[in-house]
């Protein structure tokens, strides 16, 4: 594409993005100064504190966050962030330093996000499910100066070098270390001068294999939000229940959008299926953000329990973070109506595609279509473009939120400026994208290629099966053979031969698992990603 054509497309995309943000309520084109202020706030403070600053100016008395301690308005949160920034400065922190959080979802986590941004410090969101070695590796690799942590993780922090300072977030009594509340209470809440440069933040990859990699983010344009708002009807002043944890990109991108829209976000420190439904009902929430495992737990409550909670206010159930089986999405649509939005992307590539309820109704299991501001292509093993419906290829993505490389060095494979997502997929005849599996999960058995997801999708549809996973095990004759790990639904009996017969009746012979094991649960990360390595090690 010529430079002139590239510039023309960029102009069209930018104008389209402005229109998307106008319709959602992020911008008001009748007040063009708002666009300039929003751009400046995001450029100076980043993707989290920038939108917070704008909403605190426009709607200061709107409730921003509700947690177990009660509500906080945008004005109150902005003031707390300013005070904490001064507290961080008193500890010797400043622009270029790195603040890490090991904090469950409560106001202290939001305070830390804002306080770090106000001084231009880089923020690293640590996974609360980390083991000691993972935590130590990430803290050292990212050059962390201070860790803000909940007291429940105190023993875990013993693996850290002594020079890494500690600040307590949630605690249960008298402590010897500085706390978030003390740093806020002892400082002025007035605005600070902007930092010399934006600190940005680091998301960590899913961590299903070894130590998670760091993915730096520096969002410098409010137009980046259009990639999500084009296909998800988030609107100003809604209420969002955030079930997925904020350290994960799934929740964080929706939290940022909520701040941009001066919406109210309901936080919980731990996920509980019934409590989540109660929160939706109590706050008449229009938006619920979760990962598929959480959605399954909610549906497992059963119709008798779900009917106790009035969830007719829901307009969006945003699912992301791992594959959403068709049978699970169909069950969600039956229970809650046409409100399911299935997101596909990754920490590295950002947004790739989003399935609307209309997409799902037309082709359940799809991840939908790319937003206008994103480019998604499929390439074969020979590097050639794959466009035919049903033909598989590795998925490559370009978006405004694509990363520039891991903080520890290295990047993803790329073709023509598009980054590999690491997944294999195909288009259907309607231009909708389907994910067939990870390119490194493919099993070669007797010369035949099998993606676990296809077999798992079938097993999920069996009335006696709650969850299922397919992995490869070594085989002297075929090189690899398929092994199934199955979780039975409560009250159902199911034998291994029945599982094999079910697969044989619906799929090709070489996709039938030779080994079938029944387990109480499947090993998953805290955000619901399947840990196949833990199954293959058994």
Write a brief caption for the model:
The protein is α/β, with parallel strands linked by helices and 538 residues long. Helices cover 33% and strands 23% of the residues.
Folded structure, characterized:
The protein folds into 3 domains: about 30-60 and about 75-220, Rossmann fold; about 220-435, 3-Layer(aba) Sandwich (Rossmann fold); about 445-535, GMP Synthetase, Chain A, domain 3 (2-Layer Sandwich). The relative contact order is 0.09. The chain is built from 16 helices and 25 strands. With about 550 residues, it is of the alpha/beta class. The longest helix has 27 residues, at about 30-60.
Q: Which structural class do the helices and strands define?
A: alpha/beta
| Tertiary shape | globular
* Cα distance spanning the termini: 51 Å
Nearest-angstrom radius of gyration? 23 Å
CATH homologous superfamily of the largest domain - what is it?
ANL, N-terminal domain
Major β-sheet profile: 8 strands, mixed
> Under the CATH scheme, which class of the largest domain?
Alpha Beta
What strand order characterises the main sheet? 2-1-10-9-11-12-13-14
Per the CATH scheme, the topology name of the largest domain is: Rossmann fold
CATH architecture of the largest domain: 3-Layer(aba) Sandwich
Please, how many domains? 3
């Amino acid at each position: 594409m010529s430079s002139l054509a590239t510039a023309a497309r960029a102009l069209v995309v930018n104008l389209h993005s402005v229109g998307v943000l106008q319709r959602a309520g992020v911008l008001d084109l009748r007040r063009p100064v708002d666009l300039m202020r929003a751009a400046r706030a995001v450029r100076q403070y980043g993707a989290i504190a920038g939108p917070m600053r704008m909403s605190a100016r426009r709607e200061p008395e709107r409730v921003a966050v509700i947690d177990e301690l009660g509500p906080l308005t945008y004005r109150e949160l902005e003031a707390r962030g300013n005070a904490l920034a001064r507290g961080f400065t008193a500890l010797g922190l400043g622009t270029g330093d790195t603040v890490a959080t090991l904090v469950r979802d409560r106001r202290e986590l939001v305070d830390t996000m804002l306080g770090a941004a106000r001084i231009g410090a880089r923020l690293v969101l640590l996974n609360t499910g980390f083991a000691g070695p993972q935590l130590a590796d990430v803290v050292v690799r990212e050059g962390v100066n201070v860790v803000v942590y909940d007291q429940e993780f105190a023993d875990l922090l013993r693996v850290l070098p002594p020079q890494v300072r500690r600040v307590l977030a949630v605690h249960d009594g008298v402590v010897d270390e500085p706390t978030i509340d003390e740093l806020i209470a002892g400082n002025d809440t007035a605005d600070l001068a902007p930092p010399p440069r934006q600190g940005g933040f680091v998301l960590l990859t899913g961590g299903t294999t070894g130590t998670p990699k760091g993915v730096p983010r520096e969002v410098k344009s409010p137009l980046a939000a259009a990639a999500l708002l084009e296909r998800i009807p988030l609107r100003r002043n809604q209420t969002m229940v955030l079930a997925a944890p904020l350290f994960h990109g799934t929740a964080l991108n929706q939290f940022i959008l909520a701040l941009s829209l001066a919406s109210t976000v309901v936080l919980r420190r731990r996920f509980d299926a019934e409590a989540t439904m109660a929160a939706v009902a109590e706050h008449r929430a229009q938006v619920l953000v979760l990962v598929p495992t959480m959605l399954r737990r909610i549906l497992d409550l059963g119709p008798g329990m779900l009917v106790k909670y009035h969830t007719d206010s829901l307009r969006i159930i945003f699912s992301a973070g791992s594959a959403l089986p068709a049978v699970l999405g169909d069950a969600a649509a039956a229970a809650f109506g046409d409100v399911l939005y299935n997101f596909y992307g990754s920490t590295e590539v950002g947004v790739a595609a989003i399935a609307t309820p209309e997409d799902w109704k037309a082709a359940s299991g799809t991840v939908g279509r790319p937003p206008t501001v994103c480019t998604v292509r499929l390439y074969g093993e020979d590097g050639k473009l794959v466009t035919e419906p049903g033909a598989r290829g590795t998925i490559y993505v370009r978006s405004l939120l694509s990363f520039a490389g891991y903080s520890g060095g290295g990047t993803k494979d790329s073709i023509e400026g598009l980054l590999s997502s690491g997944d294999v997929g195909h288009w259907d005849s309607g231009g909708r994208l389907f994910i067939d599996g990870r390119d490194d999960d493919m099993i070669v058995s007797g010369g035949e290629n099998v993606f676990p997801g296809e077999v798992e999708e079938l097993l999920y549809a069996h009335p006696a099966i709650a969850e299922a996973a397919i992995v490869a095990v070594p085989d002297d004759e075929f090189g690899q053979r398929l092994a199934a790990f199955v979780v039975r639904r409560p009250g159902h009996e199911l034998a291994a031969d029945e599982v094999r017969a079910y697969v044989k009746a619906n799929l090709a012979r070489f996709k039938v698992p030779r080994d079938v094991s029944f387990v109480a649960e499947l090993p998953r990360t805290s955000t619901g990603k399947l840990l196949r390595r833990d199954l293959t090690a058994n």
